[in-house]
Specification:
The protein is an alpha+beta fold and 379 residues long. It contains ten helices and nine strands. It is globular.
């Protein structure tokens, strides 16, 4: 498997790196402190093609491969993991799901605006009693003429407060369990659809995470994705790709931790020597670099399998499992290398640690990834 990057992929990586440094870096800490959504930056990401990277050109997207997407998410997340996850959700969970499983009418109605950054998407699967057990959907959608009436609550929804379009999983026939769950496109502004609560979070604080409430929302039958009963399959297939995006986000956080550690260790002196001269610090940096490179290769492997049209779910689970573990470990080591300075807000490594932890939780916890991997091996 060849991971040598082509000209287009290198250009995408460099463009994302330049954008992150010029548009995100100066405000990332302040937005984190204020929990402020980067609306202008998201619009600019859309203009650059980063919000619909894998969407076909005929629907207004960039028509790029998953490898290019991974490179871009990593570069954005190195500077601002909040912007990275906003971008990841719109690409992996919303536009990919719509283009892969939506009708031609749905694609024409929604993909152009989502890919261009004019509109933002969210993915609503989790509920107060349906986290890792995604099949336990309490949100219902009852057929009524040429509509469905949606009732229920979703929680931990990334982009939820700022999204114009939300893909919502709801039970259309509870007696069928997982086979009775369907997926719907819900537009902002529909009567009965509201943001119920914005969460106060440990990390990725300039990305909004909210609960959504649906009270007798009338959804046109034309907004049903594929067919009734397809919702869980839709969610799981979409999450496979989403895990590649989160692995790339974790990579960005890990690489930022390493870069900060290298820079600091060359400047900070102890006993009249830069601490980079000490073997204890050298070993930490060597281990961090090795683990990050291993995570990067796992992530690129999953991306290549997806681009080839091969089965990639277990590979994506491995990439997310390992990259998220490396992100947390790298951020912890970066704080240790920085000593007391690593614990204060003036230095960015404390934000890297706060941002890293969620990569082990959302789009399937590390425990869920292990189940996916072990099932593949033991079947």
């Amino acid at each position: 498997m060849n991971f040598e990057l082509n000209e287009t992929q290198l250009m995408i990586r460099d463009t994302a790196r330049k954008f992150a440094q010029e548009e995100l870096a100066a405000s990332a800490d302040e937005r984190d402190e204020k929990e402020e959504f980067p609306r202008d930056a998201v619009q600019k990401m859309g203009e650059l093609g980063f919000m619909g990277m894998m969407v076909s050109e005929q629907y207004g997207g960039a028509g790029l491969d998953t490898v290019s997407y991974v490179l871009a998410v990593e570069e954005i997340s190195k500077v601002d993991a909040s912007a990275g996850v906003i971008m990841s959700v719109n690409n992996s969970l919303v536009t990919w799901g719509l283009e892969t499983y939506g009708t031609e009418d749905q694609k024409k109605r929604y993909l152009h605006d989502l890919a261009s950054g004019k509109k933002l998407g969210a993915f609503a699967l989790s509920e107060p009693e349906a986290g890792s057990d995604a099949t336990n959907q309490r949100t219902t959608a009852k057929k009524q003429g040429d509509s469905f009436i949606l009732n229920g609550t979703k929680n931990f929804i990334t982009n939820g407060a700022n999204a114009d379009i939300v893909l919502v999983m709801a039970s259309t026939e509870r007696s069928k369990g997982a086979k009775g769950v369907s997926a719907f496109i819900v537009e902002k502004g529909i009567p009965g659809f509201s943001v119920a609560k914005k969460e106060k979070k440990l990390g990725i604080r300039s990305s909004d995470t909210v609960s959504l409430s649906f009270e007798d929302c009338r959804i046109p039958a034309g907004n049903l994705i594929k067919e009734e009963g397809f919702g869980i399959k839709f969610a799981l297939k979409t999450l496979d790709g989403g895990r590649i995006g989160i692995a790339a986000q974790a990579l960005g956080i890990a690489q930022a931790s390493l870069d900060a550690s290298i820079s600091y260790s060359k400047q900070r002196k102890a006993f009249d020597h830069p601490i980079a001269d000490f073997q204890a610090v050298q070993f930490k940096i060597a281990d961090m670099s090795t683990e990050i490179e291993a995570a990067r290769l796992l992530t690129l492997r999953a991306a290549v399998l997806k681009d080839r049209g091969e089965r990639f779910g277990p590979a994506a689970a491995m990439a997310k499992l390992y990259a998220s573990k490396v992100a947390v470990a790298s951020a912890l080591e970066a704080i240790q290398i920085h000593g007391g300075y690593g614990y204060i807000r003036e230095y960015k490594v404390e934000r890297f640690l706060r941002d890293s932890k969620i990569t082990e939780i959302y789009e399937g916890t590390s425990e869920i990834q292990r189940i996916v991997i072990s099932r593949e091996l033991l079947q």
